[in-house]
Amino acid sequence: MRAVVRLGLVQARRDRKVLTVWILGIALLGLVTSTAVAGQFGSERERASIITVAAASPAFLFLRGLPDGTGIGSVVFFQGYSFTAVLAGLMSTLLVVRHTRADEELGRSELVGSTPVPRTAPLAATLLMAAGANLVLAVAVAAGFAAAGLPVAGSLTAGAAVGAVGLFFGAATAVLAQALPSGRSTNGAAAGLVGAAYLIRGIGDALGTPDAGLTQVTAAWPSLLSPIGWGQRSRPFTAADLVPLLVVAAAALVLAAAAVLVRNRRDLGASVLHEGEGKDRAGTGGTSLLGLAWRLQRFPLAGWCLASLALGAVAGGLAPVVGNALDGNPALQDLIKRLVPGEQPDVVDLFTTALLGIAGVVAAAAGIQTVLRLRTEEVEGRAELLLAVPRSRTRWLAATLVLAALSVTAVAATAGTAAAVGLGLSGAGSSQGGIIVAAALAHAPAAAVFPAVTSLVFATVPRLGSLLGWGFLAVGLVLGQFGELLGLPVWMQDISPFRHSSAMPVESFEPGGALALTAVALAGAGLAAYLIRRRDLTA
Amino acid sequence: MPSGSFPTIETIRLRKDFGRAAALTGLDLDVRPGEVHGFLGPNGAGKSTTLRILLGLIRPTSGAARVFDLDPWANPVRVHRDVAYVPGDVSLWPALSGSEVIDLLTGLRGGADERLRRELIDEFDFDPRRKCRTYSKGNRQKVALIAAFARPARLYLLDEPSSGLDPVMDAVFRRQVKRVSGDGATVLLSSHILSEVEQLCDRVTIIRAGSAVETGTLAELRHLTRTRFRITAAAYPAMLEALPGVYGLHDDGAGTVFDADAAELGSVLKALAAAGVTGITAAPPSLEALFLRHYTGPDDQV
Fold it and tell me: Chain B, 37-96: which have a CB under 8 Å from a chain A CB?
């Protein structure tokens, strides 16, 4: 046990900076959301009106979660919980992979494994550290809410809900790390798990049943398959209930025990997925930079496309249900008409638009990840080997930028096609299939700005590539999703490229914005390709 | 490009700072066409930094580096056309097979000589089908060596290339260096393994703390070293103590041991003849001794 604590402290020390950023960032998001809700929707009446609209809108329910009353705390929890839980999940998965499979792959575990500590000690230490990090996160989130003036008891429950979800994903990742061969694949699978949990909760919530007053929605059964859905059932600011959180924590405990058990029985470095034999000779494209970029990126790209396929399928598959719910409820339709005067867009279109917007974010993430791969190549020393051949760095970067652009397009097109097929099969919605695909592709220019900016950072201050690349996406996302709520000045909201792409099919396509975004992306990429020649290769 | 009119590699007062740390502090290096040049130094002396500058991967803080009379930072692609490189720490793509990496690297340089490629894989006793993730350090080294030697180049930059190789593979490696050298190529071989340099190199530059402390042919450098004598004599040859150029005289139980400067060998031998010596061994000046003398300060001379 002493060894476990000692190893845990070493691991915590290694992570102290990155965890501080995660925890403070997540807590700050909670604090800012709370202040904004209190400021913008100060009166009960104002809050009731937005909650009613949300309760009647499956798109809202899918993205945010379940409305649970009209108190300030309830509205804050509804607005922020799902995103916060996803962030807590990602923090925990990255943390666990860093100290388990990634260390194992790089041979660091071997060194620790040679010391007189039990085989499972490093894993136990990581799980302990993940538990500690999520405890601190829970307290920080609670403190953020409380600081904004929300009830202390409710704040603590809300913090615990976020922490419990983080803990669950930490433990689940520990299991994945036993089965998958590399840190990279484990990170991918774990992120996929977090995404799936968000998606499944979204489906359950979108299919939920509103109460008569439209201030509360009860989730449908799929939400019970998601730890994020369970966390939401704690209802911190109305009928606080810790039982769902205990269920999540118990599930985490079971997973953690399973991971430790497997680790104790398996060889160091071994994985369930066996490493097959490689190719005897390089195939076509195996001797070009673009071919190499493709070889390195094809599996991650497949993962991104799978995520956007799921989003598109949800949009296509859920739309008819969403439409029916409203059709069968004239009182609801009437209410929405009164709340939102003017021409009312089709509810199915609204839902599709929202989901395709998220697909745009996934496309941007795919692009960023493609570019950041170069940084890994540089840090791990492969760039040095590769760049000693007669090819310029500009070509090296250009090959990856081409692939990033293709990835962005492919991810967007996948979501659009899946949505179009789903909508076509069900006959729901007012838009033709072609329009839906175009709607998804309309986000591609905005998404392409992100890899272009990331490449610019990589070309100038490579060490900050990952931080600024993903940070820019987080800013874009927060500004896009929370900008109006937070009452930020328009110029600040306009920093997000997503603000400049057309939200089809609800809005009509506006070529000006798309052209401007494409120009920005091309300019960024071009500048990066020029500047990459002017810096040292660094580790 | 004509060769012979200028050095294949030339650096003049080369300096490279990483933040406040100076990796190179004014390195002068001169590698002539067709020679195998040993680049000797301890860990952290600046050998890898020098090779990276020669490849144009990093830019010198001050001073000049020229390869084939070109500035490698300004013309990396032109320089790389004629260069084969083996980095000190070979990192490969985990999901690619060894064969794919060899094809990738040689392909980007214009394609491997298929016969050479086959022979090298055979000689290095290398299994190219496995994924790079599963290769040991020695096998990763083999990938880089096969890729470097499978296509002829004018200049081979080899950064501690035999680290991780067993003695049999090391012999294969040395044969390859001799082969390309015989074909007229220039080789810059960074190493801290002296026997390797002694066997392969025409000239040697010794680098310490970022600058060259010694450069020349092995014969020239040996001139600076001392011969180690071990003698047995009827009586302790006390008169050696008085001779100039004799160092570290002592009795180690099995005999009397001392080092003698090359310049004083004549007088040492005369003294020994007079001392009634019954047994003598004289070890040739090893590079080892030279090496140690340059690495250790003046206070702890060997």
Answer: 52, 55, 57-59, 76-78, 80-81, 83, 85, 87, 89-96
How far, CA to CA in Å, does A46 sit from each of A35, A60, A74, A384?
Answer: 15, 17, 13, 60
Mutate to test the interface with A, among B53, B71, B93, B146 (most CBs of A within 10 A): B93
- The pLDDT tens digits of the residues spanning A401-442 come to 999 999 999 999 999 999 998 888 877 666 788 899 999 999
Stronger pLDDT, A505 or A361, i.e. the higher one: A361
pLDDT in tens, A186-199: 999 999 999 999 99
- CB-nearest to A391 from B83, B95, B108 is B108
Q: What are the backbone dihedrals phi and psi of residue B286, each rounded to the nearest 5 degrees, phi first? A: -90, 155
Give the domain B9-221 fold.
Rossmann fold (3.40.50)
ipTM of the complex: 0.80
Rounded mean pLDDT, A387-403: 95
* Average model confidence (pLDDT) across chain A: 89
Helix, strand, coil shares of chain B, percent, nearest 5, are: 35, 30, 35
Query: Residue B220 corresponds to which tokens in the numbers above?
Result: 């020239």
A-chain residues near B136 (CB < 8 A): none
Residue-range domain boundaries for chain A: 1-268
pLDDT average, residue stretch B260-268? 82
Residue % of chain A over a pLDDT of 70? 94
State mean pLDDT over B187-193.
Answer: 90
Tell me which residue in B97, B98, B103 faces A287 most closely, judged by beta carbons. Answer: B103
B83-86 and B155-159 strand pairing: parallel
Reduced to 3 states (helix: H, G, I; strand: E, B; else coil), residue B27 is strand
pLDDT value, residue B297: 53
Alpha carbons B100 and B147: distance in angstroms, whole number: 10
Interface mutation target, options A287, A376, A397, chain B, most CBs of B under 10 Å: A287
Q: Where are the domains of chain B?
A: 9-221, 226-284
Alpha helices in A41-148 (DSSP H): 44-55, 58-63, 72-99, 101-105, 108-113, 121-147
Domain B226-284 CATH class label: alpha beta
